[in-house]
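Last lecture ended with a question: if I hand you only a sequence, what can you say about the shape of the protein? Today we answer it with a concrete record. The protein is Universal stress protein. Below, first the input exactly as provided, then the predicted structure, then a couple of comments.
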Amino acid sequence: MKKILFPTDFSDVSNNAFIYALKLADSINAAIITMHVYQLPQANYINVAEYLHEIYDVTELSNFENYKDEVPILRRIAEENNLGHIKISHALILGNLIHEIQKITQQEHIDFVVMGTKGATGLKETFLGTVATKVMNDVKAVILAIPERCKYQPIKKILFITQYKPEDIDSFMRVMAFANIFQAHTDCLRVVPPNHDDKHDNMKDWNTLVENHDITFHTIKGDDVEGIILNFIELHKINMIAMHVYRRNFFEKLFQTSLSKKLAFHIDIPILAIHE
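The predicted structure:
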Protein backbone atom coordinates (compact mmCIF):
# COMPACT_ATOMS: atom_id res chain seq x y z
CA MET A 1 0.00 0.00 0.00
CA LYS A 2 1.24 3.49 -0.85
CA LYS A 3 1.76 6.02 1.95
CA ILE A 4 0.98 9.72 2.29
CA LEU A 5 2.59 11.82 5.03
CA PHE A 6 0.45 14.69 6.31
CA PRO A 7 2.28 17.14 8.62
CA THR A 8 -0.27 19.23 10.51
CA ASP A 9 -0.44 22.02 13.04
CA PHE A 10 -4.23 21.53 13.39
CA SER A 11 -4.95 24.96 11.90
CA ASP A 12 -7.80 25.66 9.46
CA VAL A 13 -5.15 25.75 6.71
CA SER A 14 -4.00 22.23 7.61
CA ASN A 15 -7.53 20.87 7.95
CA ASN A 16 -8.38 22.30 4.53
CA ALA A 17 -5.33 20.56 3.01
CA PHE A 18 -6.36 17.27 4.64
CA ILE A 19 -9.19 16.92 2.13
CA TYR A 20 -6.62 16.77 -0.68
CA ALA A 21 -4.66 14.14 1.24
CA LEU A 22 -7.82 12.06 1.62
CA LYS A 23 -8.82 12.40 -2.04
CA LEU A 24 -5.31 11.46 -3.17
CA ALA A 25 -5.25 8.47 -0.80
CA ASP A 26 -8.56 7.28 -2.19
CA SER A 27 -7.32 7.61 -5.79
CA ILE A 28 -4.05 5.70 -5.33
CA ASN A 29 -5.17 3.28 -2.57
CA ALA A 30 -2.86 4.81 0.04
CA ALA A 31 -2.76 5.06 3.82
CA ILE A 32 -2.23 8.42 5.53
CA ILE A 33 0.21 9.09 8.37
CA THR A 34 -0.56 12.38 10.10
CA MET A 35 2.29 13.89 12.09
CA HIS A 36 2.50 16.75 14.55
CA VAL A 37 5.99 17.85 15.58
CA TYR A 38 6.56 19.99 18.65
CA GLN A 39 9.58 21.45 20.42
CA LEU A 40 10.21 21.91 24.13
CA PRO A 41 10.43 25.53 25.34
CA GLN A 42 13.78 27.28 25.71
CA ALA A 43 13.98 28.23 29.38
CA ASN A 44 16.59 30.96 29.93
CA TYR A 45 15.80 32.36 33.35
CA ILE A 46 17.87 31.91 36.53
CA ASN A 47 17.60 28.74 38.66
CA VAL A 48 15.68 26.98 35.89
CA ALA A 49 17.31 23.61 36.54
CA GLU A 50 15.05 22.69 39.47
CA TYR A 51 11.93 23.43 37.38
CA LEU A 52 13.13 22.01 34.06
CA HIS A 53 11.60 18.55 34.47
CA GLU A 54 8.26 20.02 35.44
CA ILE A 55 8.26 22.44 32.49
CA TYR A 56 9.04 19.66 30.03
CA ASP A 57 6.47 17.29 31.54
CA VAL A 58 3.75 19.93 31.33
CA THR A 59 4.68 20.79 27.73
CA GLU A 60 4.64 17.17 26.61
CA LEU A 61 1.35 16.50 28.39
CA SER A 62 -0.17 19.62 26.83
CA ASN A 63 0.88 18.53 23.35
CA PHE A 64 -0.50 15.05 23.92
CA GLU A 65 -3.84 16.40 25.15
CA ASN A 66 -4.12 18.77 22.19
CA TYR A 67 -3.26 15.98 19.77
CA LYS A 68 -5.78 13.65 21.38
CA ASP A 69 -8.47 16.33 20.92
CA GLU A 70 -7.55 17.08 17.29
CA VAL A 71 -7.36 13.53 15.90
CA PRO A 72 -11.18 13.04 15.99
CA ILE A 73 -11.55 16.26 13.95
CA LEU A 74 -9.45 14.72 11.16
CA ARG A 75 -11.55 11.56 11.30
CA ARG A 76 -14.71 13.68 11.08
CA ILE A 77 -13.37 15.49 7.99
CA ALA A 78 -12.81 12.08 6.38
CA GLU A 79 -16.32 10.90 7.18
CA GLU A 80 -17.94 14.16 6.00
CA ASN A 81 -16.25 13.64 2.62
CA ASN A 82 -17.33 9.98 2.42
CA LEU A 83 -13.71 8.90 2.89
CA GLY A 84 -13.99 7.27 6.30
CA HIS A 85 -12.60 4.05 4.83
CA ILE A 86 -9.12 5.59 4.37
CA LYS A 87 -6.58 4.04 6.74
CA ILE A 88 -5.16 6.81 8.96
CA SER A 89 -2.46 6.54 11.64
CA HIS A 90 -1.02 9.33 13.78
CA ALA A 91 2.41 10.33 15.08
CA LEU A 92 3.21 12.92 17.78
CA ILE A 93 6.94 13.68 17.62
CA LEU A 94 9.35 15.81 19.66
CA GLY A 95 11.97 17.37 17.39
CA ASN A 96 12.69 19.68 14.46
CA LEU A 97 9.87 19.65 11.88
CA ILE A 98 11.92 19.57 8.67
CA HIS A 99 14.32 16.96 10.05
CA GLU A 100 11.47 14.75 11.28
CA ILE A 101 9.67 14.98 7.92
CA GLN A 102 12.89 13.96 6.16
CA LYS A 103 13.41 11.06 8.59
CA ILE A 104 9.90 9.61 8.45
CA THR A 105 9.81 10.05 4.66
CA GLN A 106 12.86 7.80 4.36
CA GLN A 107 11.93 5.30 7.08
CA GLU A 108 8.34 4.78 5.94
CA HIS A 109 9.05 5.02 2.19
CA ILE A 110 6.55 7.85 1.82
CA ASP A 111 5.13 8.35 -1.70
CA PHE A 112 3.65 11.85 -1.16
CA VAL A 113 3.88 14.59 1.46
CA VAL A 114 0.71 16.70 1.57
CA MET A 115 0.57 19.89 3.63
CA GLY A 116 -1.08 23.29 3.80
CA THR A 117 0.68 26.58 3.10
CA LYS A 118 -0.28 30.13 4.00
CA GLY A 119 0.28 33.18 1.86
CA ALA A 120 2.53 36.08 2.72
CA THR A 121 1.34 38.95 4.90
CA GLY A 122 2.89 41.99 3.29
CA LEU A 123 6.61 41.24 3.01
CA LYS A 124 6.62 38.89 5.98
CA GLU A 125 6.24 35.17 5.44
CA THR A 126 3.91 33.30 7.77
CA PHE A 127 5.29 30.33 9.67
CA LEU A 128 3.43 27.59 7.82
CA GLY A 129 4.27 29.15 4.47
CA THR A 130 7.94 29.18 5.38
CA VAL A 131 7.78 25.56 6.51
CA ALA A 132 5.97 24.37 3.38
CA THR A 133 8.49 25.96 1.04
CA LYS A 134 11.40 24.56 3.09
CA VAL A 135 9.83 21.13 2.74
CA MET A 136 9.50 21.63 -1.03
CA ASN A 137 13.18 22.61 -1.25
CA ASP A 138 14.73 20.17 1.24
CA VAL A 139 12.65 16.96 1.38
CA LYS A 140 13.38 14.46 -1.37
CA ALA A 141 9.82 13.39 -2.03
CA VAL A 142 6.83 14.45 -4.10
CA ILE A 143 5.28 17.36 -2.17
CA LEU A 144 1.70 18.51 -2.64
CA ALA A 145 1.33 21.97 -1.09
CA ILE A 146 -2.22 23.28 -0.64
CA PRO A 147 -2.60 27.09 -0.34
CA GLU A 148 -4.96 28.38 2.33
CA ARG A 149 -7.45 29.83 -0.19
CA CYS A 150 -7.63 26.60 -2.18
CA LYS A 151 -10.92 24.72 -1.94
CA TYR A 152 -10.95 21.16 -3.21
CA GLN A 153 -11.90 20.65 -6.84
CA PRO A 154 -11.36 17.59 -9.05
CA ILE A 155 -7.97 17.60 -10.75
CA LYS A 156 -8.72 17.99 -14.47
CA LYS A 157 -5.96 20.29 -15.77
CA ILE A 158 -2.32 20.20 -14.62
CA LEU A 159 0.33 22.75 -15.60
CA PHE A 160 3.94 21.51 -15.64
CA ILE A 161 6.56 24.28 -15.58
CA THR A 162 9.67 23.24 -17.52
CA GLN A 163 12.55 24.34 -19.72
CA TYR A 164 12.33 21.06 -21.67
CA LYS A 165 15.75 20.06 -20.34
CA PRO A 166 16.83 16.40 -20.10
CA GLU A 167 17.00 16.71 -16.29
CA ASP A 168 13.28 17.57 -16.24
CA ILE A 169 12.22 14.31 -17.89
CA ASP A 170 12.05 12.13 -14.77
CA SER A 171 9.81 14.70 -13.08
CA PHE A 172 7.72 14.99 -16.24
CA MET A 173 7.18 11.23 -16.28
CA ARG A 174 5.95 11.41 -12.68
CA VAL A 175 3.55 14.19 -13.62
CA MET A 176 2.24 12.10 -16.53
CA ALA A 177 1.65 9.18 -14.15
CA PHE A 178 -0.09 11.51 -11.69
CA ALA A 179 -2.28 12.92 -14.48
CA ASN A 180 -3.24 9.41 -15.56
CA ILE A 181 -4.54 8.67 -12.06
CA PHE A 182 -7.04 11.50 -12.38
CA GLN A 183 -7.46 11.33 -16.19
CA ALA A 184 -6.31 14.94 -16.29
CA HIS A 185 -5.04 17.01 -19.22
CA THR A 186 -1.45 18.30 -18.86
CA ASP A 187 -0.12 21.57 -20.27
CA CYS A 188 3.67 22.00 -20.32
CA LEU A 189 4.82 25.61 -20.23
CA ARG A 190 8.26 27.11 -20.84
CA VAL A 191 8.81 30.85 -20.32
CA VAL A 192 11.84 32.20 -22.21
CA PRO A 193 13.41 35.68 -22.61
CA PRO A 194 12.20 37.78 -25.57
CA ASN A 195 15.52 37.28 -27.37
CA HIS A 196 15.56 33.49 -26.90
CA ASP A 197 17.22 31.50 -29.68
CA ASP A 198 15.07 28.52 -30.70
CA LYS A 199 17.82 26.81 -32.69
CA HIS A 200 19.06 24.66 -29.80
CA ASP A 201 15.77 23.17 -28.69
CA ASN A 202 15.00 19.85 -26.98
CA MET A 203 11.33 19.86 -27.95
CA LYS A 204 11.73 17.03 -30.47
CA ASP A 205 12.96 14.71 -27.72
CA TRP A 206 9.93 15.57 -25.59
CA ASN A 207 7.43 15.00 -28.39
CA THR A 208 8.36 11.32 -28.50
CA LEU A 209 7.45 10.99 -24.80
CA VAL A 210 3.84 12.07 -25.12
CA GLU A 211 2.40 9.90 -27.86
CA ASN A 212 -1.13 8.79 -26.90
CA HIS A 213 -1.16 11.15 -23.90
CA ASP A 214 -3.41 14.18 -23.34
CA ILE A 215 -0.54 16.71 -23.24
CA THR A 216 0.03 20.08 -24.92
CA PHE A 217 3.37 21.94 -25.14
CA HIS A 218 3.61 25.73 -24.87
CA THR A 219 6.46 28.26 -25.07
CA ILE A 220 5.84 31.91 -24.18
CA LYS A 221 8.39 34.70 -24.51
CA GLY A 222 8.61 37.36 -21.80
CA ASP A 223 10.55 38.64 -18.79
CA ASP A 224 7.82 38.39 -16.14
CA VAL A 225 7.97 34.64 -15.54
CA GLU A 226 5.70 34.61 -12.51
CA GLY A 227 3.12 36.91 -14.15
CA ILE A 228 3.03 34.80 -17.33
CA ILE A 229 2.47 31.63 -15.30
CA LEU A 230 -0.30 33.20 -13.24
CA ASN A 231 -2.03 34.49 -16.40
CA PHE A 232 -1.74 31.05 -18.01
CA ILE A 233 -3.33 29.44 -14.94
CA GLU A 234 -6.31 31.80 -15.11
CA LEU A 235 -6.72 31.63 -18.90
CA HIS A 236 -6.58 27.83 -19.13
CA LYS A 237 -8.48 27.14 -15.88
CA ILE A 238 -5.59 25.13 -14.41
CA ASN A 239 -6.33 23.42 -11.09
CA MET A 240 -2.87 22.07 -10.22
CA ILE A 241 0.66 23.29 -10.98
CA ALA A 242 3.67 20.94 -11.06
CA MET A 243 7.38 21.66 -11.21
CA HIS A 244 10.82 20.12 -10.81
CA VAL A 245 12.69 21.49 -7.76
CA TYR A 246 16.34 22.05 -8.66
CA ARG A 247 19.12 21.77 -6.10
CA ARG A 248 20.57 25.19 -5.32
CA ASN A 249 23.84 26.11 -3.69
CA PHE A 250 24.02 28.23 -0.55
CA PHE A 251 24.49 31.60 -2.24
CA GLU A 252 21.68 31.02 -4.71
CA LYS A 253 19.36 30.16 -1.83
CA LEU A 254 20.54 33.22 0.09
CA PHE A 255 20.11 35.82 -2.66
CA GLN A 256 17.33 34.42 -4.82
CA THR A 257 13.73 33.53 -4.12
CA SER A 258 12.87 30.28 -5.85
CA LEU A 259 9.98 30.21 -8.28
CA SER A 260 8.22 27.55 -6.22
CA LYS A 261 8.38 29.83 -3.17
CA LYS A 262 6.97 32.83 -5.05
CA LEU A 263 4.14 30.81 -6.50
CA ALA A 264 3.33 29.26 -3.13
CA PHE A 265 2.49 32.74 -1.88
CA HIS A 266 0.51 33.95 -4.89
CA ILE A 267 -1.65 31.16 -6.27
CA ASP A 268 -4.71 29.40 -4.89
CA ILE A 269 -4.34 26.00 -6.54
CA PRO A 270 -2.19 23.06 -5.34
CA ILE A 271 1.53 22.93 -6.15
CA LEU A 272 3.07 19.54 -6.93
CA ALA A 273 6.81 19.91 -6.24
CA ILE A 274 9.04 17.06 -7.41
CA HIS A 275 12.51 17.04 -5.88
CA GLU A 276 15.45 15.90 -8.00
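Comments.
1. The chain has two domains: 2-147, 157-238.
2. Residues 49-80 form the longest helix (32 residues).
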